[in-house]
Amino acid sequence: MKYEEYVYELEELKDKAPKLFGVSTGTKLDEMFFKVEYDPQQDKYVKKPLGGIPYLSVMNVTGVPDTGKSLLVEQFALTQASLGYKVLFVTVESPAEFLYTALKERSKAIGVDFQTIENNMIIVDASQEVELRENMKAFLDTLAYAIKRKNTTIVAIDSITGLYEHKEVMARQIVRQVFNFLKKWKQTALLVSQKRSSQGMETAEAAGGLAVAHILDGTIVLEKKLITSKFDVTTYGMPLGSVLRLLRIDGCRLAPHRSETFVFEITDTGLIDIKMPLSEFIKSRRSV
After folding, report:
1. Alpha-carbon span 133 to 125, nearest angstrom
2. Nearest to 49 by CA among 272, 257, 288, 280
3. By three-state DSSP, how is residue 279 classified?
4. Given 3.30.300.30, 3.40.50.300, 3.30.360.10, 3.40.1030.10, which CATH number is that of 18-286?
5. β-strand 218-226 against 243-252: which pairing, if any?
6. DSSP labels for 202-266?
7. Cβ contacts of 108 within 8 Å, gap of 6 or more
8. Structure pTM?
9. Rounded to whole angstroms, how far apart are CA atoms 282 and 288?
10. Lowest mean pLDDT among 40-54, 76-90, 172-186
């Protein structure tokens, strides 16, 4: 049989299955994923926060422009590097020297030693080299070299959309190759994907399109709502012209998670600060 190596008895996978634990993002997303464990004291199964995105997951971070996607993946990368883990950051949109400045400023906000970040992070700049964006073999070979050079365990790609921005018919194939590559190299990853402003938060396209959402392990959707009507003012308790930022986990195949929409803010120093579920936010604003 040609493909017999891909057929398993379920018990044969026991030693290959990854452990379920969290990889911190440096945000309250760490509390939004959970696992279910038996508590002998209560004699029942209880939910316990995972402490981050699932280990070895490859997650999609999506939203329209200026929703905080890049800030989230930068915060994730900085948090992991500050903890001593080796991080590969792939920049497809902004040249590496501008990323350096952004990471340095963000590290001040988090309160970590930037020299530690420099020692634990390696950058692949695909923003200025067409070959890296157009040739998947060249792209993945470069990532493999970077992973081996630094022995990384964490990957951030901003953004994967840049690899198929003018050839969306190939998006599924490209995303699948990147996903399989990261799984093979045992990396935990956040991948930014862009969506058009006309695509609503609740649609499949809001998760970066079916090519991304279908293949990756889960999706984190970031959205912003402009308060433009009396109805909005009454509902959200915010003045006209204000911006309400929203975040939700749109499915994850590796771990349970909270499904509510959450309100978050971007601080003056560019950090993602997740506040509370939208339902609680509306209730609190109405009681003021």
Report:
1. 10
2. 257
3. helix
4. 3.40.50.300
5. antiparallel
6. TSGGGGT-HHHHHHSSEEEEEEEEE--SHHHHHHH---TT-EEEEEEEEEESSS-B--S-EEEEE
7. 114, 269
8. 0.91
9. 10
10. 40-54
CA distance 44 to 130: 56
Instruction: Report the C-alpha gap between 163 and 143 in whole angstroms.
Output: 14
Cβ atoms of residues 244 and 224 within 8 Å: yes
CB atoms within 10 A of CB 196: 10
Q: Report how far apart the first and last C-alpha atoms of the chain are (Å, whole number).
A: 70
In whole angstroms, what is the distance from residue 70 CA to residue 99 CA? 10
The string of pLDDT tens digits covering residues 76-96 is 999 999 999 999 999 999 999
Residue type, 82: S
Distance CA 265, CA 270 (A): 9
